[in-house]
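FAQ: What does a ligand-bound record look like?

Like this one, built around GCB:
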Amino acid sequence: MKVSLFVLTLWCVTIHGLLYPEESETRQIRSLDGLWEFRLDEAGVGKTEQWFAKPHLPSPTILMPVPASYNDITQNITIHQHIGMVWYACDFFFHNTAPRWVLRFQAAHYEANVWVNGQSAVDHSGGHLPFEVDITRFISSSASYSRVRIVVAVNNTLTSTTLPPGYLHIYNPTYRVLETPFDFFNYAGIDRSVILYSTSNNYIQDITIDTDSIDFDSQHVATSAVLSYSVTIGGTTHQANTLRLIIELFDAQGILVVNNTDSQSRLIVNKPNLWEPCGMNHTHPCTEESYLYTLKVTLYDDASPMNILDIYRIPHVGIRTIRLTDSKFLVNERPFYFHGANAHEDSDIRGKGFDRVILAKHFNLYGWLHGNAFRTSHYPYADEFYAMANRFGIAIIGETPAVGLKKDQFVSQATLDHHKQVVTEMISRDRNHPSVLMWSLANEPESGDPEAKGYFSALADFTRLLAAGRPITYVISATYDSDQGIQFFDMICINRYFAWYSQAGRLDQIPSLVSEELANWRHRFPNKPILMSEYGADTVSGLHNDPPLMFTEEYQKDFLSGYHGSFDNVSSIVHPNTGYFVGELVWNMFDFATDQSITRVGGLNRKGLFTRQRQPKAAAFVMKKRYQELEFIPTEVTH
Ligand code: GCB
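The answer part, i.e. the structure of the complex:
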């Protein structure tokens, strides 16, 4: 089929997914990661003094690794706790070997302004999602190579309308404090990779792919699946009448399964291999790979035979369905029970900086723990986390950076608009990942506030139109009888800290309090499954006491175990007919950095099953044993 002009003009009004930069026969990729020039701009004068137009940033500059948060790279406390603007710059030789070049930042926290060769190229607000700009126009097209300078100003100041919000208090010129209504350090800088990639003038701009349905036989073997897809073309329009597409789906062995030439259509896959979360009794262990297909899209120009313009592959197409009943979370029509631990993008020295060493260790520890799920608390993670989760069958609850919302935000149209923008960017980026099973739109808003009702009603209505087949939720700290917003969502996710933030030290109180809490939520919302999205206790590695006292390894073990009986009593897999509880996620997988405070020894939240250096505490072995046992609970097919 011809790619219509309609499709070509549509991209002007649609927000596209910013396809992950993949190398191909037609696309070159160049990493700009490395040591960049860096300096603070404490006086906030860089823009008026036009630092972006100078051959060097004014001294003093230091070398700063990209990607990394800048805070913990030096011994300088001023850099560690800086609030405001910082500047980065890098020069490189650019070889003019393709018609179109795109500069992409995988993320910069929070507000970023980018100049290329002294000219303003792109601005972005929001610290956890990618942004990119076509920089071809800034570069000489006649020379075969040229020197290019990129300058980036990054401002980490949070305000009442950023996500997450923050409040700057200026007590005097030397005493400024950024109050952050959330419990993690506000790491900042260019903390994910910077990439330059090429395309042709006409190029594949966006691809979406979803599993519409799967047919099963009486043994619950999948007999066929229907996938729907859509491809958007970007670029100059003069060739539109002669542009053509080929869409091909390959299996894991690289064998062509099905193809099509429409820009938007359906693919029927016979005897599909399904993507499944690991570690349920009927699937693969979490150390083995889940089944993935590859979608290859080829764009070519019919007017010039064999003129291939662009090739893009999505290497992680998973065939699977998601369906909620009033008491179960079904994946491929089998009850799925989330079990694992949430995390932060956080590690020594790097802060939030993306690092493949940390990524690989994270997933190896997940396999060791037999965890099959985590929430991207409290913001969208680097794309590479989702790619690994697709591969190993780890379920993800993708979360926005809306943590710590209260009345100030609920009454602000600017916040709601920005929240919608972030939801749109997150879903556009992550919708093709089979691992993403649900969207969480916020963490612990003050949802007992009457103003929360209208805010979350509007946000839920907006998100449903984009949700790409996933349920939506937000994570609740409010009480069951005060929450105003979750009525508009599909699932109840609650964070509870009995015997920690309340009933301190009273492990004996946990079972009755947890059971009562779950029963109360169920009573108010009999049609929504419930998940415990956080529970945990700070634990200083190596601190012991018997009987168990708070902060000891013994306490963490007994604290976590204390919750499990109550979970099992209403579990949707232990009690398929009466259960409604669909999962448990420990807070936290690793100790992580926070602001300094009297409750955070050494500036760390120590609720990790593992230390920040990724070594297990005693409770990690308790959780590993429990998760291994959970895998053997047989689950019943629902159709
Ligand atoms: C929570 C928050 C999380 C905190 C945690 C804690 O409820 O969602 O961000 O880190 O409690 O340890 O206090």
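Follow-up question: can I read anything off the structure? Yes, for example: Confidence is low (pLDDT under 50) at residues 1-14.
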